[in-house]
Amino acid sequence: MKTKAAVLWNVGDPWSVEEVDLDPPKAGEVLIRVVAAGLCHSDDHLATGDMPSVLPMVAGHEGAGIVEEVGPNVTRVRPGDHVVVMFMPSCGHCRWCATGRTNLCDLGGSLMMGVGVDGTSRLHARGKDVTTMCFLGTFSQYAVLHEASVIRIDDDLPMDAAALVACGVPTGFGSAVHTAGVRPGEAVVVVGAGGVGMNAIQGARIAGAELIIAVDPVEFKRDQAKVFGATHTSPSMAQATELVRELTRGVMADAAILTVGVAHGDQIAPLLGLVSKGGRAVVTAVAPAVETEVTLSLFDLTIFQKELRGTLFGASNGQADIPRLLSLYRSGQLKLDELITNRYTLDEINTGYDDMRAGRNIRGVILHGD
């Protein structure tokens, strides 16, 4: 079948919206009509070359849609089901899934190769195979996915809001709740108040943090951070350090979470400087793959028993956490609608990413037409 999609042909190119060919689902796969797709910064990392990829590619790893067709042996969903895609698939039986760490599922080992679980492509254009982001490719009106990458949701949930729990929401929320282990009464700093950072703020708020300091150079984002639960804001880590010292009477924060658009090694020392003795520093942001040097004080790390933690998908268990997050949304505790700054058509994808890079969006969402 034919589908309209945004294709990245070369690093540095704009997204090319064009018609591509889509194969039918094979065993264990489903065809979905994508209704909404989030414009996550991780997809832009492909365009800038910060994240390695196999091009040409149809990106997009946040999305929600409706199952149109299922291949042989599919048991998790059926035609007509409303689903959220999950950028980390979960097979359910590898060592990591069996021990509750589904975000580290072995299926993710070839995630960035852009092909299906069986090692082949489902999309084709201009005589070439086209890869997809994280086995997904929600920048296409239709997508063929492995059933391990979809989760059924209630039919009455709005698709644009539901699409965000595919990546940005659980990544940010989990960074605070799972990886940082925020507890009631704690002080938390979130560095970077974009689509992931806002959800780290929400996670800290729901976990019961008393002080939540949002750090971002963009005034619009600092103002929006207060909507999601920030008690204080600061334009830089240097200024935040003084603010946190004052607010905590010199103790410093219990946790600091790095959720900037692009992480760099020279941000780790000031991040660790924000936390107290025994404090937890969490790196959620993606760094350029070629960057290998980090600046920090090993003396400070050891003598003050600080912890530096990495996290993928916020250490979330998608099968359990995505329904839980949607329940929090239903009850009014988790803000999803407020995350969406602008909605775009697929033809406007380059405008959407221009808005993201300029700091005009918390999260942009593509609404696919029929």
Query: What is the residue-averaged pLDDT?
Result: 94
Ranges with pLDDT <50 over ≥5 residues? Answer: none
Helix count equals 11
Q: How would a crystallographer describe the biggest sheet? A: 7 strands, mixed
Radius of gyration over all CA atoms, rounded: 20 Å
Terminal Cα span: 14 Å
Tally of DSSP β-strands: 18
Content of β-strand: 25-35%
Order of helices and strands: EEEHEEEHEEEEHHEHEHEHEHEHEHEHE
> What spatial form do the alpha-carbon principal axes imply?
globular
Helix content: 25-40%
Structural class designation = alpha/beta
Structural description of this entry:
Helix 4 packs across helix 5 (197-207). This protein is α/β, with parallel strands linked by helices. The model has no long low-confidence stretch (mean pLDDT 94). The longest helix has 13 residues, at 318-330. Strands 3, 5, 6, 9, 10, 17 and 18 form a seven-stranded mixed sheet that branches. Strands 13-12-11-14-15-16 form a six-stranded parallel sheet, with helices on both faces. It has helices at residues 41-48, 95-98, 159-163, 168-179, 197-207, 219-228, 237-247, 268-273, 298-303, 318-330, 349-357; strands spanning 2-8, 16-22, 29-39, 57-58, 63-70, 82-85, 123-125, 128-132, 142-146, 150-153, 187-191, 211-215, 232-234, 253-258, 275-283, 307-310, 340-344, 363-367.
